[in-house]
Specification:
alpha+beta, Pdz3 Domain, 2 domains, four-stranded antiparallel β-sheet, 16 strands, elongated
């Protein structure tokens, strides 16, 4: 856990320092005095001054700050003259650019990290990798390898777009329209999402080996001891060499509640188990195309990197919307302790696959966090960048600033409310550890 704690400090510090560096660059460019740019907080370990700015490295490596003259609206809001380099002497649009630069730099960081992630791990096109035998999707003609381009009118660019849409718009049994591409041709069909069939609860890539990429908790496969990463070798008397072979077997031998013998290997050791399929009643698209990754050209790396950032921004906005609707609760909000727990989970679950997978999964988590910080900071909440931007926009519209004292009080109340929320989330995350 200590290693995960240190990794979290590093990740959060990079994200926050990049955010503050955005403010810093635009402030310097526009002649605003930056009193101090610091990395970390607490006692100063060492510092130096250059160009009128003090650069400080502090004892607790967690975040950073960019302190500008006049940034605090209460600081120079009296009757005295403002200094030439004060934040408050600049035009509304200059101040707007300085404040907006922080979140924008978070998005730029997400883009750079996404380029690295996709260049190494591949892009995430919405390519179908698992078909449910006998499903409405299969009967409609969807096949493994097809690219999903639209679900219920929602444009799909990457596989996780499908998952995000279904999370925000849960399937309820009503037919939905699905559009897909195959060999340059487009197809469309209405898919019945109501499901009633036997299942054992395994997921795998059809166009890859027969390793399991998912084992559903509470289903026969999990109860029989199968785990993610297990390689299926045989089902009954049929030898299995790929995910396609698993699909073919269940297409030609539909599950009817009878016991099924499966042989599999784990870490070079073979096991044989028998399980009885259970009947599932619910809703499903009938296919999976969420997480498949494949190598792409350099041009596509850049294209998919922008899509990756767009996805995480949309993911954050969707989550916020669901919270406002009451579809998500406080248990879905994480603070610093929750982030440490997330990092620990990522490291623990990826370590068996090697250091590269740990790195890539931490990279993906960092993209999520920096995009999330960018979005949250742009929300029109007092004390946040978005709240300050609102006051600047009001000033630009009415031709004069909102009284500094009134704005300062509103931001102060916002800070108190945010601290209160942080304390609640902190205790929630701590109790979740036990």
């Amino acid at each position: 856990m200590m290693g995960s704690f240190l990794l979290t400090l590093l990740i959060v510090s990079v994200i926050v320092v990049v955010h503050e560096f955005g403010h810093f660059l635009l402030a310097k460019k526009n002649g605003i005095e930056v009193v101090e740019f610091s990395v970390g907080f607490g006692p100063t370990l060492f510092a130096f001054e250059r160009g009128g700015t003090r650069y400080a490295f502090k004892a607790i490596l967690f975040g950073g700050a960019c302190q500008m003259t006049g940034e605090n609206v209460m600081e120079e809001g009296g009757s005295g003259e403002l200094s030439e380099g004060s934040f408050l002497t600049k035009s509304p649009w200059v101040r707007f650019s300085v404040i907006a630069a922080g979140p924008i730099f978070n998005f730029l960081l997400a883009l750079v990290l996404a380029i690295v992630l996709i260049a190494v791990a591949g892009a995430n096109p919405a390519r179908v990798y698992t078909m449910e035998s006998g499903s409405s999707a299969e009967l409609a003609g969807i096949q493994a390898g097809d690219i999903i381009t639209s679900v219920d009118g929602k444009k799909i660019v990457i596989g996780r777009d499908i998952e995000l849409y279904v999370i925000a718009n849960p399937l309820d049994g009503e037919p939905i329209e699905v559009t897909w591409e195959r060999d340059g041709k487009e197809y469309s069909a209405m898919i019945d999402t109501a499901v009633s069939r036997y299942m054992i609860g395994i997921n795998y890539y059809t166009n890859a080996d027969a390793s399991l990429i998912g084992v559903s908790e509470g289903y026969p496969a999990a109860e029989a001891g199968l785990q993610v990463g297990d390689l299926i070798l045989r089902i009954e008397d049929t030898e299995i060499g790929s995910g396609d072979d698993i699909n073919t077997y269940f297409n030609t031998h539909p599950m009817d509640g009878s016991g099924i013998e499966i042989e599999y290997s784990r870490n070079g050791e073979r096991f044989v188990t028998e399980m009885v399929p259970t009947r599932y009643e619910g809703y499903s698209l009938g296919f999976e195309a969420f997480y498949w990754r494949e190598p792409v050209s350099p041009v596509q790396v850049l294209r998919y990197s922008f899509t990756e950032v767009r996805y995480w921004i949309e993911n954050t906005l969707t989550s916020l919307t669901m919270m406002l609707r009451g579809q998500l609760g406080l248990e879905n909000v994480s603070g610093p302790v929750g982030v440490v727990s997330m990092v620990d989970t990522v490291v623990e679950e990826s370590s068996e696959d090697g250091g590269l997978y740990v790195f890539l999964n931490l990279l993906n988590l960092t993209i999520l966090l920096t995009a999330n910080l960018g979005v949250i900071n742009l929300l029109p909440i007092p004390a946040m960048d978005g709240g300050r931007l609102v006051f600047i926009l009001i000033e630009a519209v009415i031709g004069k600033p909102v009284p500094r004292k009134a704005e300062g009080i509103i931001h102060a109340v916002g800070i108190l409310l945010l601290f209160g929320l942080m304390i609640v989330v902190l205790f929630k995350d701590i109790f979740a550890l036990f």
